[in-house]
Amino acid sequence: MKIFMYHNIDIPLKEAKLKSLYVKPSKFETQLKVLKKLGYNFVKTEDLENNQKKSILLTFDDGFKDFYDNALPIIKKYNANAIVFVPAGLVGSFNQWDYEKLNIRKKLMNWEEIKRVYKEGIEIGSHTLTHPFLTKIPKERAKKEIQDSKKMLEDMLSTEITCFCYPYGDYNETIRDLVIEAGYKYAFTTKEGSLEQSDNFYEIKRIMISGFYSLPKVLWKTII
Ligand SMILES: [Zn+2]
Q: Where is the NodB homology domain (predicted)?
């Protein structure tokens, strides 16, 4: 099973840096359309347990507004499932953690949009409260980021939050254990690989779908 990692589904503004984070909506739609034709299923996180062949889990980091505007209609059109990782303390704000580095403010979904996305069947996971490098802050603060974000999302959505995603893919054993202790079932990294290549459910490897990848490259990444 493969887990795809996306960030923005949008056309980048000229001044935006790191344009590989943006997959054009038309490109995203083609990826879903072709993979579906080839017999792939876009599954839910609970399907990580059965790890079926030809399964893909679509993950979206950071909860950008363009998920709501651009990705959601395409996901619905192809009857796919997906999960969005939200920095719970920054809902309705923008990418405060890297807007200077990227030279652009990217809008994040507000609670109303997140609730609507959830009602449409999209899963929501935690991406901490404020998107810090978890290994670089005091352990007590990291614990709070991991635990309080879960609680906040659970309160707002009235559902159990089972998935966590490490900001910047930054974690170590201590951080991983805090995630386990907080009661999550799965945690996602930015390390490249398949579910089979992941050591355990708290260090799940993914495949970053760069905006620069051609369709054959996406298909290649899916089958290897
Ligand atoms: Zn992130």
A: 54-224
Domains in the chain: how many in total? 1
176 CA → ligand 1 middle, Å: 17
**Residue at 120: amino acid letter:** E
d(CA 29, CA 216): 14
Cα-to-centroid distance, 37 and ligand 1 (Å)? 30
Give the mean pLDDT of 146-165.
98
Q: Which amino acid is at 172?
A: N
CATH number of the domain where residue 166 is located? 3.20.20.370
Q: Using an 8 Å Cβ cutoff, are 51 and 168 in contact?
A: no
CA of 131 to the centre of ligand 1 (A): 6
Q: How far apart are CA 119 and CA 56, in angstroms?
A: 21
pLDDT at 104: 94
Measured N-to-C along each axis, helices 215-223 and 25-37 cross at an angle, to the nearest 10 degrees, of 50
Domain that holds residue 49: 2-223
**Centre of ligand 1 from the C-alpha of residue 167, in Å:** 5
Tell me the CA–centroid distance for residue 6 and ligand 1, in Å: 10
Q: pLDDT tens digit string along 21-67?
A: 999 999 999 999 999 999 999 999 999 999 899 999 999 999 999 99
